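User: Show me an example of a complex going from sequences to structure tokens.

Assistant: Sure. Here are the input components:
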Amino acid sequence: MTVPLIDIRNISKAFGGVQALAGVSLDIAPGEVHALCGENGAGKSTLIKILAGSVTPDSGEVLIGGQPLQVGNVRASEDAGIAVIHQESVAFPHLSTYDNIFVGREPKTLAGLWLDRAMMRRETKKLLDRLGEHFDPSRSVGELSVAQRQMVGMARALSRDCRLLIMDEPTASLSARETEVLFKLIRQLKSDGVSILYVSHRLEEIFLLADRVTVFRDGKYVGTKLKTEITQDDLIRMMVGRELLQVEGMVKSETEHPGGEVMLDVRGLTREGMFRDVSFSVRKGEIVGMAGLVGAGRSEVAQAIFGAMPLDAGVVSVAGENLRSGSIDAALDAGIALVPEDRQHLGLVLPMSVGANLSMAVLPKMTRAGLLASGKEEALAGEMIRDLRVKTANARVPAETLSGGNQQKLVIGKWLATRPRVLMLDEPTRGVDVGAKAEIYKLIREMANGGMAVIVISSDLPEVLLLSDRIVVMRQGRVAGELSRQDATQEKVLALAMLNANTQ
Amino acid sequence: MLLLVLIALMLTAGHLEPKFVSSRSQEGLLSHVWDLAMLALPMTFIIITGGIDLSVGSMMALTSVTLGKLYIAGHHPLWLAILAALCVGIACGLLNAIFITKVGVHPLIVTLATYSAYRGLAEGISLPEIYSGFPDWFRSLGQNTYGSLQLIGWLFIIAAVFCAIVLAKTPFGRSIYAIGFNETAARFSGLKVNRAKVIIYTLSGLAAAIVSINYSGLRDNAQANVGLNMELDVITAVVLGGTSIFGGRGRILGTILGVALIHETREFVGWHYHRNEYVPLVVGALLIVAVAANALLMRRSSRT
């Protein structure tokens, strides 16, 4: 192997208390397509941001062409020839294609006062031709297709003589034909000597394109392999690892097969561009885990069941009764509750008190003669704070003063107060510390044992395996498969979440 | 805090112009304040939700013209004209609400548009006429005092108590605050966000109608330039009363103090200097000082 173009040495980065990257190293040769894989939260995005200069590592260094890169400086990264293409990589949707390509270093005439639009348009046309795209460079980027936008990002990278092109899930929203074009382009760039760091969840693409593959897990470097050395199964094994989080045996279901009647049943839920033909059911007392990659459509399905998102097709029914779709009121009346993923924006009204947040979904029940009865609110808050073991000075402090785990308990408490029949929790332990995590697991199991039908959406595989009686795996907006608790392993779940049906 | 400023103002005023603070002159001055006070009630709800209603003055104009056109020009019975004016006020507010909730346009834009549209409509219907010649009983309704207050004064007191209780003590009031802080979370908590907005913007229209009908009786005229710039005075009073323009914070009591403070400042400056040109300047300065003081206090309390 020749001298590496880029040499990443011992990079570490922590956000708050979370170690996003722990001493990872990686090198990429000139003209190499190097794939980077790992589960959600493995540290891939953090590494990309460090290379792009938008995040400063805590320690470690990056050499490019043998020269140390000034880290944490977007301009320095650009000047060194590093370009990143995201799914939505274009910064200014209202500006024209050529403006987007030349933004920040527009060619000027008339002593630097006038933009040389003719030249920008001409150059852009040349770049687009090279990429096999033939649309008008004056069109505003907002009206282009996703694939075309990605091409604009590529053109922008090419216009800067880039040496390392980082592509983050480039095919996530491309059609098969557009993907073909992209792959052809990647091979062409490779033959021009451009190195490519290719981040993708799609294993078949990795095996098609990459020369070598590096795997991260939980912010740690696992290994780098030549494509020819390994199989897809090996790769999945590297990503999963062997350790399984064990939180005391208490969270397992009391009965081996929760045999209650079907409480929630969804049939053929479809929302164009988000999810299609999603069907599954949850029994009374059962916990169904929803696994899948970020962007597989799980949160969207949950929000649609909750009525917060309109449906193009499909039916949600609770205890045999069909709900009016797209109505939060109807979902609430039927006893559906959603603990959303983004608790800061969707779950809580942070500046309001703990007590006011806990009573928010049951305000009509908190009244006497039409007026809010502070006694009833205090009783509810006291009960929830005690039952959920919320750590707070009292019920009158603003919710924003609580820690992440305790805020999460507030959101759960708010919905428990409605005595729901169906409880959906979206990433219930994200940003929650280990101790609170175990308590939340225990709570979820208690709720199911109390007869609720529970759905847990989580990107944390060990968590899904630990909690679920049954696992529904989603992939690209569809249900890829269902696994019973006995059958489910991390490998099987990941295989369903990542592989095309025809490659299994 | 505001109460202290008000007391300080009255003391200074009493020192400079002893006659100003006598109860008789205060009573005389009161008749000017009810319009502002009445409109400030729904505006308090609206601003707490993070919204705004710029069209109140124009809704006054349109309801005033409706009243005049039907009774004076159209010779319809007065009760019918009053009822129609009330309905027009409600309809104007409802239209604002529909654009805000169903179409999803920001309240600032919606009411900026209807601010022009409603007054334009009023001018189109009435100009160049100014309707006058309302019957005596109607005029005395606006002018007479009942136990030292005019009818609208009593109406305001009842409405203010009602609003204060609703805002502080009911699920509806709680939802108003929640919407102001975080509308999405309010919606995800099952609160009826759209219904709440429809109610408060419609009430704003109703209040504009009531104020404008009363004004017609008081002055014996109905015309298209009633309530000119009224929206700015109302918003100033509400914000001066401690309601956050970003939503989530505010109380009816604060609004009442804000109204009183603006009112007394304005009357006193006019009285003392005999020049009304100074009034906007002083009111503007007052607003900046009050808001800055409020921001400083908040910052200090959040640091501890």
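The lines above are the inputs; the final block is the predicted structure for all two components together. DSSP finds 17 helices and 24 strands in chain A.
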